[in-house]
Design brief:
The protein contains 7 helices and 2 strands, in the order E-H-H-H-H-H-H-H-E. It is mainly α and about 180 residues long. It has one domain: Globin-like (Orthogonal Bundle). A two-stranded antiparallel sheet has the order 1-2. The longest helix has 30 residues. The protein is globular and about 45 Å long. It binds protoporphyrin IX containing FE (HEM). Protoporphyrin IX containing FE binds next to helix 4, helix 5 and helix 6.
Length: about 180
């Protein structure tokens, strides 16, 4: 392959049927998600920091995937602007999905972008699940069990599960894409 070769995907876009990410959620559950997320949104940097601090404490191997974070000494990671910036970016992405909760087409497109970049980084379903479970845990700790009651926790589990389902469905498309890359 020459250095300047260009590639084009020939995967038909309609080939994969994506699950309707929000289809399983009742209207009441969507409202709970939106209302509880307001708290996270308004404290995004702090949630972002704690989310990734905890993710790396519980799964130190994940850090190897993060070229810009793994070079920071472990004891300086929590509170480091680079970690906070990354965590905040993830919170903003989830915010975009929640803002578009009533528009499955837009939600799928948003998640497709995340799936594409994370497929290349070999981020697995289990890794996504671990991150989402930590997020739910943080919300329970910070918002208390009156706000994060059983109904809210169930809604969040459903939401994150569907989100991950869509991304993993996107991965299938990425696999095909990779196989069908042709030089032109
Ligand atoms: C709901 C879950 C997640 C969301 C919404 C999310 C979102 C993002 C976004 C928006 C970026 C920056 C844009 C990009 O480069 O794609 C990013 C980068 C990245 N994500 Fe995620 N992510 C999630 C979960 C994870 C997990 C579980 C891992 C691995 C354990 C991971 C690994 C990475 C890596 C390695 C980068 C590149 C960081 C760098 O710039 O060095 N992500 N993610």
């Amino acid at each position: 392959m020459s250095k300047n070769s260009k590639y084009r995907s020939v995967t038909p876009e309609t080939d994969i049927v994506y699950p309707d990410v929000m289809g399983l959620l009742e209207e009441e559950e969507k409202k709970i998600i939106q209302d509880t997320w307001e708290n996270v949104k308004s404290d995004a940097t702090s949630y972002g920091n704690d989310l990734f601090t905890r993710l790396f404490n519980e799964n130190p191997k994940y850090l190897e995937k993060f070229a810009s974070l793994r070079i920071i000494p472990r004891n300086k990671l929590s509170g480091h602007p680079r970690l906070i910036a990354h965590g905040t970016q993830v919170i903003y992405t989830i915010t975009a999905v929640i803002d578009e909760i009533g528009f499955p087409g837009i939600v799928t497109e948003l998640l497709f972008k995340v799936a594409r970049s994370h497929f290349k980084r070999q981020v697995s379903r289990q890794m996504f699940e671990n991150l989402c479970n930590i997020m739910i845990g943080l919300m329970i700790e910070r918002l208390g069990d009156k706000v994060m009651n059983k109904k809210a926790i169930d809604a969040w589990k459903k939401f994150f599960n569907s989100m991950i389902d869509v991304m993993i469905a996107c991965y299938k498309n990425c696999e095909k894409d990779q196989m069908l890359m042709i030089e032109f």
